[in-house]
Design brief:
Layout: H1 6-9, H2 15-22, E1 32-37, E2 43-49, E3 55-61, E4 69-74, E5 81-82, E6 90-95, E7 101-106, E8 126-127, E9 133-138, E10 143-146, E11 154-159, E12 166-170, E13 177-181, E14 189-190, E15 197-203, E16 209-215, H3 220-231, E17 234-235, E18 241-246, E19 253-254, E20 262-267, E21 273-278, E22 289-294, E23 301-302, E24 310-315, E25 321-326, E26 337-343
Antiparallel strand pairs: 1-26, 2-3, 3-4, 4-5, 6-7, 7-9, 8-17, 9-10, 11-12, 12-13, 13-14, 15-16, 16-18, 18-19, 20-21, 21-22, 22-23, 24-25, 25-26
Length: 344
């Protein structure tokens, strides 16, 4: 879940898609050059930069772990090491502004095992696990503080390094809203109030604006479905649009209108555009590409054309590189890896 969680999406690609990518039958991406693969095997996703651009924090399901844990690696893929507890399920690691600590969400205090997967008899749904809380931890894995303790889901945290503010998704209000807090967990404030899902938020670099994904059901039937799923700690992800607002939630506006799944938005370094993932050309399917759009919703441009699943982009602190997740070169059906490329 900006955080998006690769297990959260649980994309089940057709074997033909994986074989096509493995065979190297990829269209070029004009914006991405000098693509380098950093992880190999397993399910690796949501890699985000350290403030100095020398490290990446990411989540991975790899042996011996049965569900996502948080890892840190050097920007060239070396030095991969576990920094979460190894217990429960984790998601959404993000560097603190000091570069020495991270925030991430984990269920380890609710139980050492992985939470049960979502009930897919209800359709393609995400689990909004009630055990998730957000923690502040050092890079050697020591938890310094539990930042949230409200009943229900607290996750999807990102940090603005300039202001020190954290934006995250919480069920504290009884709905899936965006909240902000200080880096020490103080001054919690609810900033979205429309019924429906709001999540995966990130600030612009100057800390003045936000972008996130939202599902605000527009019909009585869709709203009833949303409420029914939420009672079971579930939500449906395949109809989400992107929204922007001022950092405190003022002046919200929808910037996409695809009727598909758009998520993982990140601002360009100048804050004028948003890079994000969408299945815009395959609304009922699993082909996700990267797109670029002005922050006012104009001038949509497709940034990749890989033909499989590509998502979770983020610009390096110097703006010269982009890290992203893809099934490019995948050798197994559920394999996702982290890549870095120069941005043109």
């Amino acid at each position: 879940m900006r955080c998006n969680r690769i297990a959260f999406f649980g994309i089940e690609f057709a074997k033909s898609s994986v074989l096509l990518l493995a065979a190297g039958a990829l269209a070029h991406a004009e914006h991405l050059t000098n693509i380098k693969q950093l992880t190999f095997g397993g399910q690796n996703a949501e890699a985000y930069w350290s403030p100095d651009g020398k490290q990446l924090v990411f989540q991975s399901t790899r042996k011996p772990y049965e569900c996502d844990q948080i890892f840190v690696m050097n920007a060239d893929g070396s030095g991969q090491r576990l920094v979460s507890t190894g217990k429960g399920r984790t998601t959404c690691g993000y560097f603190h502004g000091d570069g020495k600590r991270i925030v991430y969400a984990s269920t380890h205090e609710a139980g050492a095992g992985c939470p049960a997967p979502p009930d897919r008899s209800k359709g393609y749904v995400w689990g909004v696990f009630t055990g998730f809380d957000i923690y502040l931890a050092t890079l050697d894995g020591k938890i310094e503080k539990r930042l949230t303790a409200s009943p229900g889901y607290d996750a999807e945290a990102t940090v603005n390094w300039k202001t020190g503010n954290i934006v995250y998704t919480s069920m504290a209000s009884g709905d899936l809203d965006l909240w902000t807090m200080r880096a020490d967990g103080s001054r919690k404030k609810r900033i979205t109030k429309s019924e429906g899902y709001d999540g995966g938020a990130v600030f612009s670099r100057d800390g003045t604006t936000m972008v996130w994904r939202a599902n605000h059901p527009a019909t009585p039937g869709a709203m009833a479905r949303y409420r029914e799923l939420l009672k079971d700690n579930l939500t449906a992800p395949m109809k989400m649009e992107l929204m922007t607002s001022a950092a405190g939630g003022r002046n919200p506006r929808v910037i996409t209108d695809f009727g598909c799944a758009s998520f993982a938005p990140t601002f360009t370094p100048d804050g004028k555009k948003v890079l994000f993932a969408s299945n815009k050309h395959d609304c009922d399917g699993r082909r996700f590409e990267l797109f670029l759009i002005n922050s006012d919703g104009s001038a949509l441009e497709q940034a990749t054309n890989f033909g499989g699943f590509t998502s979770f982009p983020e610009f390096s602190p110097d703006g010269r590189k982009v890290v992203f997740c893809s099934d490019r070169n995948a050798k197994e059906r559920y394999e996702f890896n982290i890549f870095v490329a120069d941005w043109q």
